[in-house]
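PROTEIN DESIGN WORKSHEET
SECTION A - STRUCTURE
LENGTH: 271
C-ALPHA CELLS:
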C-alpha cells in the first residue's frame, strides 16, 4: 500500500513564523499550469501571479493593459497546478485605485473564480481604504511599495525609488500604515538596500524584495527573467540562473533541421 505523503501548505501564518525564526522566504512568478507545477514542486514558498504577465505573456510594454478577466485566467491556471505554495494574485491597474467597493469586487472575483489564496495591491496610504475593505471580507492582502510599475506614467521612469530622505520617510510610514491595516506581507521593489533593511526591522510582517538588497525577509524574481527566457531585460538585481533562451533556440533549430532533412521522424518514431 502506497502511503500518500501529506504536503504542508504554506499559509500567511507560516510566512510570519519564517520571519520570526529568520528563515528566508522564496518567491517566484508563474502564469500558467505547466510552469507553476514545476515551480511548486521545487519547494517555492510563494507563487506570484503577477501583472507582469502583461509583459512576458502578452508582450505589452507596461503592466497597465492587462485586465481582471485575464488575471483570473492566469491565476486559475496556476492554482490548478499548486499543492504547496501560497498563491498571491496581483489586482491589475484600474481595479482598485480610488474606489474601495470596486477593489473588494475585484478581490472577491479573484478569490472565487481563480480560487486564489491572497491578492496584492500597489501603493501606500492612498490605497488604505481598499486594503481595509478587502481585509474586512477575510481576503489576505500583500502590499507593494517602492517602484510600483502600475504608476510608471506618474514617475516616468523605472529607476530606484526612495533615494531621497523625504521619499524614504514616506515609504517607512506607508509600510507601517499597510502593516497596521492588516497586510500579511510587503513587497519592496527597487529601493536602496539600507532603507529596505530598516523597513524589515521596523515592521513585524515579512518584507520581500526585488532589487532591495539581502537584509530583508525574502526575495522575488520574475520566472522568465531568472531563467534567461527574456534577454532584453538586465537590471542589476537580476541573477540569471539559466540561459533557457539559448537552450530552447538551439532545440528549435535542431528540430527544424531534422524536419527539413527528413531525419525526423525516424523508423522508431512512427506507427
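SECTION B - SEQUENCE
RESIDUE ASSIGNMENT:
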Amino acid at each position: 500500500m502506497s502511503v500518500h505523503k501529506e504536503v504542508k501548505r504554506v499559509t500567511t501564518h507560516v510566512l510570519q513564523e519564517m520571519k520570526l525564526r529568520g528563515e528566508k522566504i522564496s518567491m517566484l512568478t508563474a502564469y500558467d499550469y505547466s510552469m507553476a507545477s514545476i515551480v511548486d514542486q521545487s519547494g517555492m514558498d510563494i507563487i506570484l501571479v503577477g501583472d507582469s504577465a502583461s509583459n512576458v505573456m502578452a508582450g505589452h510594454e507596461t503592466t497597465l493593459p492587462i485586465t481582471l478577466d485575464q488575471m483570473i485566467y492566469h491565476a486559475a491556471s496556476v492554482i490548478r497546478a499548486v499543492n504547496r505554495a501560497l498563491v498571491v494574485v496581483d489586482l491589475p491597474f484600474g481595479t482598485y485605485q480610488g474606489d474601495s467597493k470596486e477593489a473588494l469586487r475585484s478581490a472577491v472575483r479573484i478569490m472565487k473564480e481563480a480560487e486564489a489564496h491572497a491578492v496584492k495591491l500597489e501603493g501606500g496610504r492612498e490605497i488604505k481604504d481598499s486594503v481595509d475593505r478587502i481585509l474586512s471580507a477575510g481576503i489576505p492582502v500583500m502590499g507593494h511599495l517602492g517602484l510600483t510599475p502600475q504608476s510608471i506614467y506618474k514617475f516616468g521612469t523605472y529607476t530606484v525609488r526612495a533615494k531621497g530622505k523625504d521619499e524614504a520617510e514616506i515609504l517607512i510610514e506607508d509600510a507601517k500604515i499597510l502593516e497596521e491595516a492588516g497586510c500579511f506581507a510587503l513587497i519592496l521593489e527597487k529601493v536602496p538596500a539600507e532603507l529596505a533593511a530598516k523597513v524589515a526591522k521596523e515592521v513585524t510582517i515579512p518584507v520581500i524584495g526585488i532589487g532591495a538588497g539581502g537584509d530583508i525577509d525574502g526575495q522575488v524574481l520574475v520566472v522568465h527573467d531568472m531563467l534567461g527566457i527574456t534577454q532584453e531585460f538586465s537590471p542589476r538585481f537580476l541573477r540569471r540562473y539559466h540561459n533557457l533562451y539559448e537552450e530552447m533556440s538551439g532545440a528549435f533549430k535542431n528540430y527544424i533541421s531534422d524536419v527539413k532533412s527528413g531525419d525526423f521522424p525516424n523508423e522508431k518514431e512512427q506507427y
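SECTION C - NOTES
Residues 120 and 171 are 17 Å apart (CA to CA).
The chain has two domains: 12-240, 243-271.
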